[in-house]
Amino acid sequence: MDAELLELQRQFEFAQQVKSSVRLSDRNVVELVQKLQELGVIDFDLLHTVTGKEYITQEQLRSEIASEISKLGRVSVIDLADTIGVDLYHVEKQAQDVVTSDPGLMLVQGEIISQSYWDSIAEEVNERLQECSQIAVAELAGQLQVGSELVQSVLEPRLGTLVRARLEGGQLYTPAYVARVTAMVRGAARGIFVPSNLSALWMPLQQLVQEMNGASGVAVENSFFQSIFNRLLKEDEMLGSLRAGTHWTPSVFATAQKECVDSFFSQNSYITYETMQKLGISQAVQFLQSRYPDGKPLSAVFIHSSMIEMLDAATEDAIEQNSWIDSLSVLPASFTSQDANKILLLCPSVQSALKAEKALILGDSYVLSSGFIKGIYDHIEKEAEAFSIQASTASLIEPPKKSPESTESIPANTDKGSKKKKGKSVSKNTATVETVPDDEEDARPKSKRNQKKGRDSSSTQKLDSKAGGKKESVKAQEGNNIIPPDGWVMKKIVDSVPEFEDDGMENPDSILKHLADHMKPMLINSLKERRKKIFTENSDRMRRLMDDLQKKLDESFLNMQLYEKALELFEEDQSTSVVFHRHLLRTTAATIADTLLHDLDIHNKLKNGIEVEDAKAQDLVLLDSSERTALAKNLPGSLSKKALALVAALEGKCVDAFMTTFRDLAEESGLVLKKLDKKLERTLLHGYRKDLISQVSTESDPVALLAKVVSFLYIKVHNKALQAPGRAIAAAISHLKDKLDESAYKTLMEYQTATVTFLALMSASSGEEHDCSADRILTKRELLESQMPILRALVLGDSQPQQS
């Protein structure tokens, strides 16, 4: 059998060596192959080589690729295309199939690498490690021209077998090197006795290792030291605790910490969080609560229950004795006011006292019994009421009244000793002659008939509605005027409890300040209730006051209008007109203006809860300019503006301006002023005429008689009620020259001349400018008295004027 096979092999070899006598061209071969593919004889794909003269099957291409990989271990796909002579596209496609079918191969960045190649690389790395103790993975990747991740992924499964090393932080270390660094880490960690950050420990170790390796050594990463430290800690080669991976606390330090805390807490029954921080314990509350479950955490300290019992006994004693206590004076100095407040709220006696309203905590640390506070408050409340009344009165100054005598004209003194009549109305005073100054009161005759028509009974309500329109801010400002300030309250507290003075009024945390802040709202409420009560009581008085004021103005303002009409007679003589205007403003106008301002001021005081004594109805109010201004400024809102305008008009020279401002103020106050019509004017003139006749018939003063006679003649001649000052009597008589017969006019002029001479003698005698004898004065007065019947006859008509 063997012989036959050998024979067949020789024949086959001979047939191959025999040259064919028929040769085919390349074109014929290509056409033949195509024909065989069309006939299906060749049923597999054929690939052309890059020369185009050869065909190769895909199986053969894969076989040649695998052969090259097994021979080189690492080959580039581009190099395979050049070596095999096939187009790169077909080589890449078949190379992908080869790598996919063989798990020991990998295609990386256009290169096919086998596991045997990596085994050889691992052996080379191991040999290098024995020489230099450490190699960086990045360095190997640069040498192999691949990525560091790939090198690390290839070396990790070979560590401990082909590569006897440790991979840490991108570095390969030999076991001997790791053991040496481990010894360094162990020694450095065991030399630490206080809490430390391990990151600070690794820096000197890095420098030490680098010096040990020399200039060629690779820097060691902190993670390498940390991993060694973690392994040593896990193996219990070091005792301590590690927080957040880097904060290391040795067990010896923790033991010392606990001993210090236990010693301090057992001796003092408390420990501050600041002390805990100095001992290196950051989470002090959690540490203390876990160690002392019976303790209580406060704001700045941690206390034992015995501290609460001690403070409870002290506060209970203070409450029972109706006294007070500062808990900070009982507690250690390291306690804050917040700590004192918290521990007070834990005291059973304080809890029960607060619930029963027997005590009060002020300023976090002060405990005061309710009886102690009440005693001080009762004393201060009485003084606060007095302060409120005084403050209200100061803000609304009540002007003093003037007696009518202070502004009456001074009649000439005679041997009979004529005197001023006290308590009489100014309207019944006599007039003076031209030597009397303008600012003195002149005659103000009034009708005795009261005009009661058109009175508005609701004037008080109107005034209230007008004044109520002011802004809330003004009300609040007025209300604050009667509230005692903090300094006043604290001073009164010190008067009741002198020991509080040691705390000082400027200290914001003193018991004096806190007690004043507590009592201030109580005093405000008390004063408001008192004012509300007084206001209720004053309501009826306010209504009666405004009704009485309306009655007063009904007659006086009609008289003022009556006197104003007489001023029209002197409009052509400007200088004389000014004298009459000013006289009327300073007499009748001043009286009704003073009455209005005074009663509005009383109404304002009653409305603001200020107690005002009842004034006598018959008292006449006479004010000077400063007093009028003060009253006007004290009125609220728009009333004050209109009142100031009235005062300014009263100081002027025009009655029309006064009448306008007076009407404005009365209207703002809710008062109704009657307008003088023809009927009222006739009635008033008739009453005024009868009044003058009565006064002329009874007048005993020869000087005063002249002014009344002149006023009567103006009613008779011009049907006007004239109010003439002494200095304008001559002008008033001259104005009657064309209206009287010659004898009557002559009588007036002679009497007026004699009066002026008499007053001049009186003035010279009182001023001691001339040595005038009493006989001359007496003679002149007797002369005037002898002419008085003749002058009365002009009014009474008893006899014709005769030449004296």
UniProtKB/TrEMBL annotation:
Residue span, E3 UFM1-protein ligase 1-like domain: 546-676
Matches recorded under Pfam families: E3_UFM1_ligase, UFL1, UFL1_C, WHD_UFL1_5th
MF GO annotations: UFM1 ligase activity
Family under the similarity heading: Belongs to the UFL1 family.
Coiled coil, from the record: none
UniProt-recorded name of the protein: E3 UFM1-protein ligase 1 homolog
Region (Disordered): 397-485
Keywords assigned by UniProt, alphabetized: Transferase, Ubl conjugation pathway
TM helices/strands, residue ranges: none
Native species: Arabis alpina (Alpine rock-cress)
Biological process according to GO: protein K69-linked ufmylation; regulation of proteasomal ubiquitin-dependent protein catabolic process; response to endoplasmic reticulum stress
GO cellular component: a single term: endoplasmic reticulum membrane
